């Protein structure tokens, strides 16, 4: 680890003025929240039991707020390393717009609000899964795994994989093979997605003392891991097509997407650093870009299958 400033001592004199609403909203990591909301909504809609629209709205709101609470707690804890990394230096705390204690208060308050309201509006399992997700991201990942092991992204990816399972639990009060596979889809996608980014965001993690795989084991090993996890991802993604929430539309799209993703991972694997530097990591950046749409398209296809079933078009 670097001897960076502790969480509670981050630039206390650098406060640029009164914090605005947008500064507090940025604490919630809205771009991450959008994926959480979408996958949770899909989990709720594709579940076999209907949910009253108002209850569904409240549930998705709670999941979104819970995700935002996790983001605020993460920013509070990681303020010392955020100010070192170029891509995070403009976040509200290192930029001096929000004080660490304020971020902690926002995170704790929103966590309690979202969990209790989800419990009252739906059921204990859904609320329990949301509580565990917040705890896992804020404590297990942020406070422990992120700074302790190069497998931080692998294990920590579970936090981002729970939303569709929570949505399913809202509708059914339980878990199933389908919700477990939606969880596994996000879980297995996370490592190649982030490691592709780490390959071309070269110095940030090392400067911050974060043991990202690229820093601890090198880029050659990272390329091996990207290909390995992509190979594990493909059968999970395609396999969903053969469950009660899948169908021919999903299967066709998933096969095409995974063929492209696997080809990209193969291309990244076969390159060395000299080749990557020669074209400014073009292939690695391409793999990262297509990974951004990978989940959205898979979960969007599940929505299409649900709409077809609702219209009476059942193929399986």
UniProtKB/TrEMBL annotation:
- Show the GO MF annotations: protoheme IX farnesyltransferase activity
Annotated TM spans? 32-49, 55-77, 98-120, 126-145, 152-171, 183-205, 226-243, 249-266, 286-308
Q: Which InterPro entries match?
A: Protohaem_IX_farnesylTrfase (IPR006369), UbiA_prenyltransferase (IPR000537), UbiA_prenylTrfase_CS (IPR030470), UbiA_sf (IPR044878)
Q: Which residues form the signal peptide?
A: none
| GO biological process, any | heme O biosynthetic process
Q: What is its main location?
A: membrane
Q: Which reaction does it catalyse?
A: heme b + (2E,6E)-farnesyl diphosphate + H2O = Fe(II)-heme o + diphosphate
Name the UniProt key words of this record, in alphabetical order. Answer: Cell membrane, Heme biosynthesis, Membrane, Transferase, Transmembrane, Transmembrane helix
Under the heading Gene3D superfamilies, the entry gives: UbiA prenyltransferase (1.10.357.140)
Q: Keyword S-adenosyl-L-methionine: yes or no?
A: no
Q: Does the keyword rRNA processing apply?
A: no
List the Pfam families hit by this protein, alphabetically: UbiA
Question: EC number(s) on record?
Answer: 2.5.1.141
Q: In which pathway does it act?
A: Porphyrin-containing compound metabolism; heme O biosynthesis; heme O from protoheme: step 1/1
Question: Where does it reside?
Answer: Cell membrane
Question: What else does the entry mention about this protein?
Answer: Carbon 2 of the heme B porphyrin ring is defined according to the Fischer nomenclature.
Q: How does it assemble?
A: Interacts with CtaA.
UniProt family annotation: Belongs to the UbiA prenyltransferase family. Protoheme IX farnesyltransferase subfamily.
* PANTHER family registered for this protein in UniProt: 4-HYDROXYBENZOATE SOLANESYLTRANSFERASE (PTHR43448:SF7), PROTOHEME IX FARNESYLTRANSFERASE, MITOCHONDRIAL (PTHR43448)
The free-text function statement in the UniProt record for this protein reads: Converts heme B (protoheme IX) to heme O by substitution of the vinyl group on carbon 2 of heme B porphyrin ring with a hydroxyethyl farnesyl side group.
Name listed for the protein in its UniProt record:
Protoheme IX farnesyltransferase
Organism equals: Flavimaricola marinus
Q: What is the lineage of its organism?
A: Bacteria, Pseudomonadati, Pseudomonadota, Alphaproteobacteria, Rhodobacterales
């Amino acid at each position: 680890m670097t001897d960076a400033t502790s969480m509670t001592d981050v630039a206390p004199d650098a406060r640029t003025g009164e914090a605005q609403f947008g500064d507090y909203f940025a604490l919630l990591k809205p771009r991450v929240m959008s994926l959480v909301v979408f996958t949770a909504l899909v989990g709720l809609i594709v579940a076999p039991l209907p949910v009253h629209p108002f209850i569904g709205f409240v549930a998705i709101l709670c999941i979104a707020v819970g995700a935002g609470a996790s983001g605020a707690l993460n920013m509070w804890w990681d303020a010392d390393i955020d100010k070192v990394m170029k891509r995070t230096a403009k976040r509200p705390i290192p930029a001096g717009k929000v004080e660490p204690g304020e971020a902690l208060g926002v995170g704790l308050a929103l966590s309690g609000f979202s969990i209790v309201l989800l419990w009252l509006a739906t059921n204990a399992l859904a609320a329990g899964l949301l509580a565990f997700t917040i705890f896992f991201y804020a404590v297990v990942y942020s406070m422990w795994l992120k700074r302790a092991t190069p497998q931080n992204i692998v294990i920590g990816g579970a936090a981002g994989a729970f939303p569709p399972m929570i949505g399913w639990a809202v509708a059914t009060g339980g878990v199933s093979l389908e919700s477990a596979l939606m969880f596994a889809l996000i879980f297995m996608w996370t490592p190649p997605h982030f490691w592709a980014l780490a390959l071309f965001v070269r110095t940030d993690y090392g400067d911050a003392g974060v043991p990202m795989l690229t820093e601890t084991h090198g880029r050659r090993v990272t390329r091996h891991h990207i290909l390995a996890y992509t190979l594990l991802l493909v059968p999970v993604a395609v396999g969903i097509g053969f469950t009660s929430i899948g169908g021919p539309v999903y299967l066709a799209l998933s096969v095409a997407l995974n063929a492209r993703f696997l080809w990209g991972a193969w291309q990244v694997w076969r390159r060395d650093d000299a080749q990557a530097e020669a074209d400014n990591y073009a292939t690695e950046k391409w793999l990262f870009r297509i990974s951004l749409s990978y989940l959205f398209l898979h979960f969007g296809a599940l929505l299409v299958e649900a709409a077809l079933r609702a219209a009476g078009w059942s193929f399986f």
